[in-house]
Amino acid sequence: MALDTTAPVISAQNLDLVFQTADAPVHALSDVSLDIAPGEFVSFIGPSGCGKTTFLRCVAGLEQPTGGTLTVNGMTPEEARQARAYGYVFQAAGLYPWRTISGNIKLPLEIMGYSKADQQARVSSVLELVDLSEFGAKYPWQLSGGMQQRASIARALAFDADILLMDEPFGALDEIVRDHLNEQLLALWARTGKTIGFVTHSIPEAVYLSTKIVVMSPRPGRITDVIDSPLQKDRPLEIRETPKFLEIAHRVREGLRAGHLDD
Questions:
Q1: Which candidate in 28, 52, 57, 93 could, as Cys together with 62 as Cys, close a disulfide (CB 3.0–4.6 Å)?
Q2: C-alpha–C-alpha distance, residues 92 and 141, integer Å
Q3: What pLDDT, in 10s, does the model give residues 62-81?
Q4: Which of 150, 151, 153 is nearest to 161 (CA)?
């Protein structure tokens, strides 16, 4: 049977999530509906505590919604996790200091039972993808923060999942390094064709990277705007100075302001 390339990779319908706490229930997500198509680069932007990361964790099966429906590749998030449908990149690189970069990338492959030959082939391939081929034998402390994050991305790519979930992976880096990694991430996305969900606090980063920008309100997290970007996929950094880029950034900013006013 042929794969349906038109069906959403991620589909949320009327998603709610309420955390029960000692003080009072916390309404983290409210009536979130969103479809993400194969190969899209979707950024989630909003104020702290608006549910951006919570939504990503729901997709990954790390949080359980309390209402609505959510499917990943037509499966429940738990089934998708068991099927290794996604790689996840956290805010911190999370590399084990006693393992080399290659050893860190191999770890999930070892846990999943890949053969040693397959592990080595996959490690070599993803190190080349993130331009770290010469650093596999180094330890995390021997790499810059930006290089460590690239190694973390390589680890998430190692088992070749179709979906890459990224939770503010460049938030702690300086602007110059962040710009460079944004360029590299776009090039990586172009080469692999993966579907990417990306959480950020940066309006320029969201506009530069995305084919779709999801603007979220303060808690309870709601979607205030979904912007399909008209920018071409091949984007030099200089595109950030163009009228079209600034127009999209303005719409994102207005969506964020509207969310605050509605709260």
A1: 57
A2: 14
A3: 999 999 999 999 999 999 99
A4: 153
Name every residue whose Cβ is closer than 8 Å to that of residue 111 and which is 6 or more positions away in sequence.
Answer: none
CA distances in angstroms from 32 to 51, 69, 238, listed in the order given: 10, 10, 34
Distance CA(201)–CA(217), nearest Å, equals: 12
Instruction: Give the pTM.
Output: 0.90
Q: Which two tokens stand for residue 50?
A: 């608006």
Dihedral Cα 235, 240, 241, 247, nearest 10 deg: 110
pLDDT digits (tens, 9 = 90+) for 113-148: 999 999 999 999 999 989 999 999 999 999 999 999
**Token representation of residue 77:** 């998030």
Partners of residue 71 on adjacent β-strands: 11
**The pairing of beta strand 212-216 with beta strand 223-228:** antiparallel
* CA-atom Rg of the chain in angstroms: 18
Cβ atoms 234, 187 nearer than 8 A: no
